[in-house]
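note to self — DONT lose this again. spent like an hour looking for the file last time. sequence + predicted structure for the chain T wanted, 182 res
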Amino acid sequence: MGFILNRKRQEQWARSRRARLRAAVQTPLVRVGVWCGFTNIDYAYVHGPMERLHLGQRCSTMNTLFNVVSGDIYVGDDAAFAHGCQVLTGEHRFFNGKRADFHPDSPYEEVPLEGNDIHIGERCFIGSGVIILKNVTIGDDVRIGAHSVVNSDLPSGCFAAGIPACIIQTDHMRGPETTRGI
């Protein structure tokens, strides 16, 4: 089972001897909790090779699912994921109405192993339950509303929400009176 503890917590734990001791006790308990199915633990699950997930400094991943089967995921510094997010590079291909693996004449594999990379910029905030799909680039300082589905690129400095996620507001539209509460 591949999971990583929230990197931001690990950095906080490294600051003091007491915090390191607490981390040494908590880590095995988190493993047991994850194995039992608790999803409110401060961890991230990585489906696929761990080395395909590239997290920046001071990222907060909460209980995000990172699927790296079909590509790499790059997350910039200071990005924050709220609870229950999914970042998915994987896909299943179909040929003549059937899954590609079940069709004898399929010209390709059902699940590609590369080419579906996801790039998330610095200082992004990803709301609860957001799903980010393959081949997406999200710029710096982007905010994404809860339960949105991101299936296309988002430019830097915008707020996006919806299914599929659409740009609601950009930084040049936002004045000083509207910067609070977003």
